[in-house]
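Fill-in record for Acyl-CoA dehydrogenase.
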Amino acid sequence: MGTTDSKLMESLDAGAVQPGSDALREFVAAIAAGAAARDRADADTRDAIALVRAARLGVFRVPSAEGGGGATLPQLFELVLDLAEADSNIPHILRNHFAFVEKALRARHLPQYQRWIERVHANELFGLGASELGTQNIGDGDGLARLEPDGSRYRLTGTKYYSTGNLYFDHIIVNAKTPDGQFVGARVSVGQTGVDVRDDWDGIGQRQTASGTTVFTNVAVEPDDVLVLANDVKVPHQATFAQLYLTTIIAGILRRIAKDAVDLVLRRERNYYHAVAPRPADDPLLQETIGELQSAAFVAEAAVLNAAGVLGDAYKRALAGQPDEALFVEAAKRSAKAKVVIDQLALQSATRLFDVGGASAAKQSAQLDRHWRNIRTIASHNPALYKARVLGNHALNGVPLPAAAFF
């Protein structure tokens, strides 16, 4: 297994990395340097998460005055792009933590979040236990996990799936149901008795995200760590953050594809005998393909950052106590439009990468198939065809966008 660069750890341990800083660039470069080994399972993803902790990336969005990175929401999405280009598994692992921090920043007046965000300040990471099998509709929130009274405490029992990142985290916010029918969020520690985070994810892509099963068996939960979800802070289209985040990861992979394509052509020393030019870099067909891949990456990046800018404005207004529903709706529309186009662009680009590389690009050692596998896996979280239908129905008939999870 790989080990973490101790010199880099020492430089990062000075404090939370700031947007645009040398320390942040050094951190992203270190993530990129270990990506191939992690994909081959020759290095441990925990080493990358150790770098995340050393950089105090968990407080990237926390105000600088509180010891955080002080990043704006668009700056967070720029970081997601950079990390996805380096290794798409790492930003995917962190998605639930960053989504939790966004909620915590808006909900400081609630005592639960006051306690929980102190743990974020202490450089601890939060995961999520939400998805379950057996519900009628994906994302309907009708969780089967049970939270039952036990003297002065509660006991949590249930099974959650697609538990991205929980294996690497400190805490999990678990969606559950009480005997009287209330939906709640309960904080448990990953290491406490009865919490079993299983590394059983067998997806074709995003293999290091540990997106497997988490089983809770009679887990003790303190009353202070239970929040009735009806009392939670909500914003219109609150799933937009998580959805746009995933599309941004795909845009980052697309940026990597464009760079890999250039490297492939420049490394090639020979061309097909019937090609237009003997030197691959002088071949107009390859030049055209490279130009199209570069353009696809540019458009994808522009689209997600455009949507992130609107979502950032919406969050700013909400934090100031003046939420603007129209801004949230616009952010949701832009996020959905970006996904519909970027998913297709990225999958096409991941295939066209092999057109510029020749047979050697298909070698297992090149690991270029990981781009298609990772894009396909992320895009499958919420198929674009459903988003496209909703956007079309909205444009034609004025039907509002869905407001629940997964949109």
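KEY FINDING: The chain has three domains: 6-87, 128-231, 240-397.
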